[in-house]
Amino acid sequence: MATVTATNGETFFLWPLPADSARGVSPGISFNEVSNDLGNGYEAQALYGSDTGVKTWQISQNTLGGTDFPLPNVTGINGEEVTQEQALWDLYCEQKITGKPFAYTCPRDGNTYLVKFDNPTFTYEKVFRAAQYSGQVSISQVREDGVTIFDLEDYAFRHPATCYLFNEDGHATPNWANEVDGSNTLTSTGTGIPTFAGNAQNGHNTVRFDGTTDFMSSLITAGTVSEIIIALTVREAAFGGNDGLFASSTQQLLGTAGGTKWQNPSITGFEYSLNGTSYAVTDMQAPMNNVFGVCHFRSPNSYLLTGSAPVLGEYASAFIAADIGEIFIATEPISKPDARLIIEHLCIKWAANT
Fold it and tell me: For the whole model, what pTM was predicted?
């Protein structure tokens, strides 16, 4: 049986049946909320728990081939080739006995989630005089502390907009490769080369900018960037200057000298969040003092960076002292639910201070 590996190294069985073997899949989502009817049509509501919700699926398997039914076998939980009905039966038993979730790829959004069986009893219907079965299962999303299996590389590759992704997999001094196409989109020259593949955070390598000379030139076209989601920490209690995070010739994302906030870029419709919490554009807290955070810069109505190709780590000789773990960039706005999934994943992966 195929497995997926979480960012903490833990492996989980992957749903064993072919994607097109189900007669029907009914995805659903639910949220935890407290609601209070105040009368006269007024209502107070508060969401608690994850802002990405809990996914559910009802899966109808009308044809599950047994020992003498001509359907391809699949790999079972012990690595052996077994019939489809045996694989599903064994996975149900394994999950119920061990309590460990398994992985399922949602046909609706293409993302993979940790799930468990909701069925308290698992039953098949058997076709008369044939080893053919049918059944229906209900599965729902579960979460484990410190565990994420969301595949951001796959998401960036599948997204219809042009996306860039830089993470610990693509370090090759002096370049930082875009995981989507392998191109060396971020480059350094001379003495200002960041430290690659070191200074680990939560077991994952970062790229360290020294705050003195380090910066990276970019092949990203300015005037195309709508979203930047970045996991990082600034290694100072306060910015030493108007330190550049991303900076093009006409628009910049900068720190505030002597403070702990990002500067307001004065972009129409601009939005900012840290670890999924929204901040006013006049009060954009940065992750400081060696505490990791996930920053989301969003410009749904225009572009974040215009003019010349943006530079990472410097503006007007003000260099940022930061460890950067991962950067996701999209050239068109992504949906807010998708952004929340990415932020949740990066917060878990990089142990952001949520």
Answer: 0.92
